[in-house]
Design a protein that fits this description.
By secondary structure, this protein is mostly beta strands. It contains three helices and eleven strands; from the N terminus they run αβββββββαββββα. A ten-stranded antiparallel β-barrel has the order 1-2-3-4-5-6-7-8-9-11. β1 and β2 form a beta hairpin.
C-alpha cells in the first residue's frame, strides 16, 4: 500500500512539473516547518529548493529559503528554442504554538530577492536574444498541521507580493515580449494567493516530503505563472524530543 502511494505521488509530481518554461513566476515550496519546540531544526531539499527552519527559543522561528531552476524550452508554439533560469533567496521570522498532543499552528513573514531570465544563453556578450528581470518578494504564510513521529500533514496559505525591476532586454522580438507578457512586467506589483497541502512520512529524523500548491493571481494585470506546483523532496528533522525518546531510562 505504501509503495503504491509513493508511486502515485511521484507520478502526480512528475506530471504537474511538465509545464512550459515561459512562466515568469514559478513559486518555491512553502516552508511549512510544523516545528513544535525550541532548538528544533528542519531542513527540506529537492533539486530546485533548499529550505531551513529553526526555533532558537520556544515559540519563535527563523527560516531561510533558496530556489534555483534552470531548464530548456520544449514549447512547440515558439519559433525558437530558448533557456529559462529562475532564482529566489528569502528569509523570514515567525511564531508557532503547539496545541493538543500533535497539533501546531505557525505564522511566518518574510521577503527576499530573485530574478527570471530567458535567452538562447545567459552570457550578455554572446546571446542572440536575452531578457532578464530582477524582483523583490514579500510573503506572509500561516500554517496548521498534525505532527507525530512518522507522519506530518499540514495546510498552509501564502500571500505573496512580487515586484519586478531592473529589466534588461537585448534583441528580444517585440512579438515575443508581448507573447510572454514581459513588455509591462515592471509596471505593477503582482499579488498571489497560494494554498498548499504538505505531507511528510518516514521515521523521526528523516521523512519523504510531498507538497501540492495552487497559485492564484489576484492582480488585474496578467502574467504567465505556474498554476499548480507539486514538489517531492526529503525533510531532515533534528528535534530534542526525539533525542529524549532514545535516551535509556536510568
Amino acid at each position: 500500500m505504501k509503495t503504491k502511494l509513493s508511486f502515485y505521488l511521484l507520478l502526480i509530481a512528475f506530471t504537474l512539473s511538465l509545464s512550459s518554461c515561459y512562466n515568469v513566476y514559478i513559486p518555491n515550496m512553502h516552508n511549512a516547518s510544523l516545528i513544535k519546540e525550541a532548538e528544533e531544526l528542519k531542513v527540506t531539499a529537492n533539486p530546485a529548493n533548499l529550505q531551513v527552519a529553526y526555533s532558537p527559543v520556544e515559540n519563535f522561528l527563523v527560516v531561510g529559503n533558496g530556489f534555483y531552476k534552470n531548464n530548456n524550452s520544449l514549447d512547440g508554439d515558439l519559433d525558437f528554442n530558448y533557456r529559462a533560469r529562475r532564482f529566489f533567496a528569502e528569509g523570514g521570522l515567525g511564531l508557532y504554538q503547539p496545541f493538543g498532543d500533535e497539533g501546531v499552528f505557525e505564522i511566518i513573514g518574510g521577503g527576499g530577492v530573485g530574478s527570471v531570465e530567458f535567452g538562447d544563453n545567459f552570457n550578455p556578450k554572446s546571446a542572440e536574444f536575452r531578457f532578464k528581470a530582477n524582483n523583490n518578494k514579500f510573503f506572509v504564510q500561516p500554517s496548521i498541521g498534525y505532527v507525530d513521529k512518522n507522519i506530518e500533514i499540514g495546510f498552509s496559505l501564502r500571500a505573496v507580493g512580487l515586484q519586478f525591476h531592473s529589466i534588461e532586454e537585448d534583441s528580444f522580438p517585440l512579438s515575443e515580449l508581448e507573447f510572454f507578457q514581459l513588455h509591462r512586467l515592471d509596471e505593477a506589483m503582482f499579488f498571489f494567493l497560494e494554498p498548499a497541502i504538505t505531507v511528510r512520512a518516514g521515521i523521526e529524523w528523516v521523512k519523504g516530503h510531498f507538497q501540492l500548491m495552487y497559485v492564484n493571481n489576484l492582480t488585474g494585470v496578467p502574467v504567465h505563472h505556474k498554476v499548480i506546483a507539486a514538489n517531492l523532496g526529503v525533510t531532515f528533522n533534528l528535534a530534542p524530543r526525539y533525542k529524549k525518546d532514545k535516551t535509556p531510562e536510568q
